[in-house]
């Protein structure tokens, strides 16, 4: 009995001492970090008016609608790639996407960059999984929350295609308008954290497909980790598969670095590379930023100078994406036009081969099935490479056309030679002119091209993929 009494006294003393320490912690608030480097790097304190790009964007939209979209619709390109370009996407601001495991500091990082902590605008954060929605932070005259169904119904925004993922997803989509100067130039997207012990089906919507939609449209992708969550599970592995081909947009962040001593930080940094090495198959190692992105000051006896330099480097990357908004948009539309052109040439070649092989006594379904099952037998892809100066690296997967023609009968298409009119010209000529003259000319009008009008397929190849202008070389 006496031992039990002593134990109770001991526990009570621990509880009281814990409350005393908690009281001291509350009374002594942690010092806040200086934010001057954020305003300086992102030029948030400058009073100069925002650049007016409306004329260039209007010209870009006209080129898309008159020179690219007719061929895109005629050959049903959207059913092959599932990527429909809207006017809202053409005129949209650069998008920065935050991905990573749960509770690594994605929402806290957004609060820190925007200075939203301890305000009514801040995103909810915590040690437990807190973000269950896709949250889009946009600029607005006042604080306003927009439901996902409203965002999808508004054709003026770039999010209307998200309606195809179903009502369950739209309930997990939320938009927040905040009157912040940085959001006048960029849009942030916060995503639900990856939880490896939860199956995708339990989310109630196609999580990977939704992530792919945002990845395809993001100008910069921050993949955030912290020292306690370096393991790679099935969902994170699937996410990195979806990031294939977007390596130049990826920036990996090792957050909460000031929680570690120097020796442990080096070990964690190596462990992160070891975990990600099988997932990123590129010759150049990915850029990794090591810092602590939250408003409180760095912990004592840590590498504050290193962390600050890393933070400034990341902000410079973000600013570069904002500054190169138009060049990036034009390059994206040109790349899209190249893919549409290649798709139209392939469908035309399938159709021409089908017409050549058909006789009066032939069974059309069997003839075309033979062509689709083995296109190399009929030199479908080799003919495109030989006659149209298309890069072999830009050719779509052969298997994709089995599904494409399974939905769209070959008889529903016309030959490219028949896609011409006296007043409107030929679809193929218009898209090639857009690729080789109009879009490079638009870049030239921004002071970037020396002689954009001199470009043609013979010199550059219409299958050339535009370089990413904000990638560090």
Taking all Cα atoms into account, the compactness measure Rg is: 27 Å
Tally of individual domains: 2
Protein structure class? alpha/beta
Total of DSSP H or I helical runs spanning 4+ residues: 18
Average pLDDT over all residues = 82
- What percentage of residues falls in helices of 4 or more residues? 40-55%
Beta-strand share of residues = 5-15%
Summarize the helix and strand pattern as letters.
HHHHHEHEEHHEEHEHEHEHHHHHEEHH
Shape: elongated
In the CATH scheme, the class of the largest domain would be Alpha Beta
Q: What is the fold named in CATH at topology level of the largest domain?
A: Rossmann fold
* Spatial sequence of strands, sheet with the most strands: 3-4-2-5-1-6-7-8
Biggest sheet details: 8 strands, mixed
Low-confidence segments? 1-28, 448-473
Pfam family, one: Dynamin_N
GO molecular function, one term: GTP binding
Domain Dynamin-type G: 90-331
GO cellular component, one term: sarcoplasmic reticulum membrane
Describe this structure in words.
- By secondary structure, the chain is α/β, with parallel strands linked by helices.
- It has two domains: 78-302, Rossmann fold (3-Layer(aba) Sandwich); 337-446, no CATH class.
- Helix content is 47%, strand content 9%.
- The protein contains 18 helices and ten strands.
- The longest helix is centred in the C-terminal third of the chain and has 33 residues, at 325-357.
